[in-house]
Amino acid sequence: MNAPRLLSALTFLSLSLTGLPGLAQTSPPLTVGMALDVGGKSDRSFNQAAWEGAQRAAHDLGVTVKLFEPTTDKRGTTSRGAEPLAKGGANLVIGVGFANKDSVVSAAQKYPGAKFAVVDDLPSGANTVGLRFREQEGSFLVGYIAAVTSRTGVVGFVGGQDVPLIHKFQAGYAAGVHFICPKCQVVSAYTGTTPKAWNDPATARSLAAKMQAQGADVIFAAAGGSNAGVVAQVNAAQCLKASGLPAGMVFKPNLFASLPLSAGYQKACAGETRPAFFIGVDSDQNYLGDDDKNPATLNHGLTSMVKRVDNAVYSIIRDVKKGKPWRSGDESFGLQNDGVGYALDSYNRPLISPALQTTLKTVQRLITIGTVKVPTQ
């Protein structure tokens, strides 16, 4: 066979083989639209965790990620990104936060060829899925830690917007506290009733200060960007003083008397005092309690209730990218599948003893097998 005929035959064979089933083919490009909630991608919490999951998917899977961060006008109306992202060509649109649910449902109806997901709510429609978490389970664990750590028997909870989702955090936290300390008191408050509550650190700080005045030496903040206010208050106070406790309240022995203390702490907290702590949420926020930039000294971030939004976002992007059959409805993430948990790192390891870590594993198992039923409200 001469050269021209050989080339023609090889070309025909190549074109024919690419259409045969079973042969490896390059997966089609995927554009992912990320519609964030109020607070933005750098809120050190919920939105940031979702964005990090998307960025990991972009790096590992080669997908293109488009970002939409909402704005609020003078009338208080917040823009939503589901429809603009779908209109711009996104094959998969992920609405971060329950506030994006309605816009996702509307966009899913207008763009039936695209796929849509909502983090923290269950949308309707054959081309939608809800990525939801059993926040109460992780909150139970950090409530247990708070009760064991508290030297006053009073702990706090600062929620963001007063909605059923955050009630799950509060209920699980209180249940974890009372599981190990039935007589402990949980003081709770919310930063507001509108979406503005997620980005109001001033109100959160004021609430935290009032709780400390009531003797709360550990405060769990589940308030999105408002968490910064609780962190600021705890880092500023550093400790509770016996002279400032409510009448009749006395300290239990200091669990952390042997830990190295910063010069600032020693000066501000001389005498009969006990350390003040916060518990972060969604992402690992322990490092925010390192007020002297020295991880070796006592840290004020006791732990964080991590909600692996990053893993949920990554998994839905991966499944779509790989062509996994689409299943609408509810995808649930909890202790059993590493969807929630508590953060343990170099900043707080001295605060969570090996014995407590072992106990927490037992508690986690009791929850996953159903022996311990964690309430949601």
Helix count equals: 11
DSSP helix fraction: 25-40%
Strand percentage, roughly? 15-25%
What structural category arises from helix and sheet content?
alpha/beta
Strand order of the largest sheet: 2-1-3-4-5-13
Residue stretches low in confidence (pLDDT < 50, at least 5 long) are 6-25
Radius of gyration: 25 Å
Order of helices and strands: HEHEHEHEEHEHEHEHEHEEEHEEH
Bulk shape: elongated
Mean pLDDT: 92
Number of strands: 14
Largest sheet: 6 strands, parallel
Distance between the termini: 80 Å
Detailed description of the structure:
The chain is an alpha/beta fold and 377 residues long. It is 37% helix and 20% strand. It has helices at residues 3-18, 46-61, 82-87, 101-110, 135-149, 164-180, 201-213, 227-237, 263-268, 309-321, 354-368, and strands at 31-35, 64-68, 92-96, 115-119, 128-133, 154-161, 185-192, 218-222, 239-241, 273-275, 277-282, 301-307, 329-333, 340-342. It has a 6-stranded parallel β-sheet, with helices on both faces. A 6-stranded mixed β-sheet has the order 7-6-8-11-12-14, sandwiched between helices. A two-stranded antiparallel sheet has the order 9-10. The radius of gyration is 25 Å and the shape is elongated.
